[in-house]
Design a protein that fits this description.
mainly alpha; 0% strand; flat
Length: 117
Amino acid sequence: MSLDLADGGLAPYLILIVFGFLPSEIWRWLSVGVARRLDEESPVFLFARTVAAVLLVGVVARLILTPAGDLASVPLAARLGALCIAGAAYLAFRKSVMAAVLAGEAAIMSAAYFFSG
């Protein structure tokens, strides 16, 4: 086994670990340590949750109102129907954003399959 890049030895893997994995892993562990001491109802967490929700709403609105690519072939009524299904899943699963996203994705993918010709 060699560390030379030219012969495809271990160098690419070491580079990936040293420059890709370790720097991000350090920040993950630091954030876990800091997060343990924070209150979930603190203004910082409320702000972060609000920003995340607003970004998600913005992305969904853009996908529904101004779709690109293959999604543009799905009629607006079907895209709005998928939004309604996602909203219903959100309420049905005790305000679970993950359930809403998965239900909305399933609905829009079904509509795309149905309307693709």
